[in-house]
Specification:
By secondary structure, the protein is an alpha+beta fold. The protein contains 8 helices and 4 strands; from the N terminus they run ααααααβαβββα. It has 2 domains: 96 residues, N-terminal domain of the delta subunit of the F1F0-ATP synthase (Peroxidase, domain 1, Orthogonal Bundle), CATH 1.10.520; 74 residues, no CATH class. Helix content is 61%, strand content 16%.
Length: 176
């Protein structure tokens, strides 16, 4: 649900702000998101007993002087009770900016850790095939094989020992 809300606000931000302004918006929203880590601030913002004007003042005081468009964005988020959507908005904005630059993050799931040169070779090889810039991030997983996925492009490459042996067995049985 929150992702749908974030996508609507992201679309509005992309339509209203320039590319440079969007990078500033991401920075400012990230600062704001960090202030929510304080329990007192979080309780104040989510309290139904506190006027929205006071909430706006508190959130805008974090930035001091900021652009009118950004100030209006914060006011809109407060008045429509969408403050909790800020982390999702940040994430979708970052994905859109990286997609515009043709930069993507690939997740490599493998049982054992690979060295950095191997990761760079994988990134370089896959980047050239997909005509994009890839950053490969490794995640340990309890799988007996390897799986590389670029979620934003809808690409997944995997190799499994179990599937290999199953396919090999089927091939041998068909040959007999």
């Amino acid at each position: 649900m929150m992702d749908l809300v974030a996508k609507k606000y992201t679309r509005a931000i992309l339509d209203s702000f320039s590319t440079q302004e969007i990078e500033q918006v991401i920075t400012l929203l990230s600062m704001l998101s960090k202030t929510f880590e304080d329990k007192a601030v979080r309780d104040f913002i989510h309290s139904p007993f506190i006027e929205k004007g006071k909430k706006e003042e508190l959130l805008l005081s974090v930035f001091g002087k900021c652009e009118v468009k950004f100030e209006n964005l914060i006011k809109l988020l407060v008045r429509s009770d969408r403050i909790s959507a800020i982390p999702s908005i940040i994430k979708t904005l970052e994905k859109n900016i990286l997609a515009d630059k043709k930069q993507y993050v690939a997740a490599l799931r493998i049982k054992e850790e690979l060295d950095s040169t191997t990761l760079q070779n994988i990134a370089k090889s896959l980047s050239s095939r997909l005509n994009v810039s890839l950053d490969v991030r490794q995640e340990k997983a309890a799988i007996d094989g390897i799986r590389l996925s670029v979620e934003d492009l809808g690409v997944e490459i995997s190799f499994s020992k179990e599937r290999f042996f199953t396919d090999l067995t089927n091939h041998i049985l068909k040959a007999i």
